[in-house]
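EI: anyone free to look at a 165-residue chain?
SC: sure, send it
EI:
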Amino acid sequence: MSIAIGSMGVRVYYVEAADTGIPSGEQNWIEVPEIKNIPSLSPAPDTLETTPLSNTEYKTYINGLKDLGGALEFTVNLTQALIDMWNGKTSPDGTSVLEKFNALTTGNCLWLAVVHPKLEQSVYFPFEPARLGLPEMSVNSVLEATLAITPIGEVEWGAKPTIAG
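SC: here you go
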C-alpha cells in the first residue's frame, strides 16, 4: 500500500544550461522564492478520431498532442526580493531571471525544476519568463502575484538536480 504525500517542502529552481536535455551534474540552480501554487503540468492529450465507416456504435480514438495552454501561472507571495530576482537587478548570483533570458547564447536556455523532497525524481522543462506585473490588490489580504512561465520544450521527469553550494 502506498502512502499519500503532501505538498510541503516543494521547491522550484531555475538554471541556465544547454538546450540539449535535462541539465545533469552539479549546476548553479537558483531557487524561485515564495511559490504558493504550481499549475498542473499533466494535461490530457488531445484525442484524434479514427472511427472507420464500418463501426456502427462507438467512435474510436488515438492520443494526439498534449497542450499546456501557453504560459503557465505560478502564484507567489509578492516581495521586493522576488521582484528584484525576477524583473530587477539582482538574484543570488547577481543577474535577474529576465536578464539571464535576454542574454542567452545560442544553444542555451533556462530550465525550471520542480523538486519534491519525498519523490525520487523531479520535473523539468525549458522555459521563457515574462515580466512580472502589478497584481490585483484588496483590503486586508496578502499581496500575491503571478509568474507567467511559458514552456518552450517538453515537460520531463528526471533525476533530482544536484544543487551547487
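EI: The chain is about 10% helix and 40% strand.
SC: 👍
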